[in-house]
Design goal:
This protein has two domains: 76 residues, ACT domain (Alpha-Beta Plaits); 83 residues, ACT domain (Alpha-Beta Plaits, 2-Layer Sandwich). 28% of the residues lie in helices and 43% in strands. The strands form two sheets. A four-stranded antiparallel β-sheet has the order 2-3-1-4, covered by helices on one side.
């Protein structure tokens, strides 16, 4: 029997037990969780898992249906291609942006990463009162001029009234 990779997303109002219930349903089908991420966004739960096993999408949805029965959670399941994460041929960086909140901060700053073929591998933002914070991990191509990218990021940040810094990831941070 072949094993397939599935993406499972669970979104909705937070409550205790969501992770326990989700993972119990997956384990009950013999699925292995290979990658996952979860966060709370102002009281809203958001989780994505990549799991592998012999169960098809319909069986996984059936096993997780009790999670959505109360109407406060949405659960979706879909098969995904099994593509191993390529090793970065360039370099790993951490981007930090902070300042007064306003629309357009993320798009203005991350466009500079995209413009050189960089790839954002993790992104977190938080709003605390009027202070906006963005922290991103990213890979830059081997031929990217990191100094020029940092300059473009800082100029973009200045256009939207925030501050930005770009620093290489230290080996012990991985």
């Amino acid at each position: 029997m072949s094993t397939e990779l599935h993406a499972v997303t669970v979104l909705g109002h937070d409550r205790p037990g969501i992770i326990a219930d989700t993972t119990a349903g997956l384990a009950g089908l013999g699925l292995n969780i290979e990658d996952s991420t979860m966060t709370l966004l102002r009281g809203h739960f958001a989780m994505m898992l990549l799991c592998r096993g012999a169960a098809d999408s319909a069986r996984i949805e059936e096993a997780l249906a009790p999670l959505a029965a109360g109407g406060d959670l949405d659960v979706s399941v879909r098969p995904v291609r099994d593509e191993p994460t390529p090793a970065a041929a360039g370099s790993a960086w951490v981007l930090t942006v902070h300042g007064g909140d306003r629309p357009g901060i993320v798009s203005e700053v991350v466009a500079q990463v995209a413009a050189v073929g960089g790839n954002i591998t993790d992104l977190t933002t938080r709003l605390a009162g009027e202070l906006y914070l963005l922290v991103a991990e990213l890979d830059l191509p081997a031929d990217a001029d990191a100094g020029a990218v940092e300059g473009a990021i800082k100029a973009a940040a200045e256009r939207v009234g925030v501050h930005a810094s770009l620093r290489p990831v230290e080996a012990d941070e991985l």
